Amino acid sequence: MTLPAFHCPTPLDMRRSMGRFTTGVAVVSADDGSGEPSAMTISSLTSISLEPAILLVSLTQGSRTTDAVEGSGRFAVSILSSRQEALARRFATRGGARFDGMPYDVSQSGLPLIQDALTQLECRVHTAHDIGDHRVFYGEVTDMRWRDGTGLVFYSGRFGDFLDFGHDQVPWLY
Ligand SMILES: Cc1cc2nc3c(=O)[nH]c(=O)nc-3n(C[C@H](O)[C@H](O)[C@H](O)COP(=O)(O)O)c2cc1C
């Protein structure tokens, strides 16, 4: 197949081309004290620094969750397992109280966390800045826990689950 000519990207080009970069899926949650926590599905989760422990999330400007993170200076992250595709869809659908009618865990400082997520952690906002149409938050991780399982992945607009090649040496985890 011949590659198309290089061209300046439209938003759809960005979505389609960067969609070829397989990611995990997480839910970021925050509570601005208004009585109802907010949360949204994200794939823009990146580990930035190990010591101190700092990660990055990039949230669309104008979202309730973005405003709640900004207002409270804290956010929580739940990394989803392959059994949690329905939750990923729920937290990416506009409107409605997303935690309504579902049980959830609570972090040390009271933020909602997705039950049975592979990793649950909470952060204090270290730095934030606007880039294009998103606001990027660097979070200093203050608490975390994780468990084994299979990760939910997102590729080209579709969900799947992580299948490894069966090699059992993972030196970068030690
Ligand atoms: C797999 C997946 C990953 C996403 N990643 C992000 C992300 O990193 N940042 C973001 O702002 N929106 C992301 N979205 C879109 C938001 O989840 C979606 O727009 C959501 O409705 C925004 O919340 P709001 O309706 O409260 O504004 C993602 C959606 C999906 C399905």
Describe this structure in words.
With 174 residues, this protein is mainly beta. It has a single domain (23-149), classed as Pnp Oxidase, Chain A. It is 13% helix and 39% strand. The chain contains three helices and twelve strands; from the N terminus they run H-E-E-E-E-E-H-E-H-E-E-E-E-E-E. The strands form three sheets. It has a seven-stranded antiparallel β-sheet with strand order 3-2-6-9-10-5-4. Strands 1-11-12 form a three-stranded antiparallel β-sheet, with no helix packed on it. A two-stranded antiparallel sheet has the order 7-8. The termini are far apart. The mean pLDDT is 94.
Helix content: 10-25%
Structural class designation: mainly beta
- Provide the number of structural domains: 1
- What is the topology, as strand order, of the major beta sheet? 3-2-6-9-10-5-4
Compute the number of helices: 3
Shape: globular
Tell me the β content: 35-45%
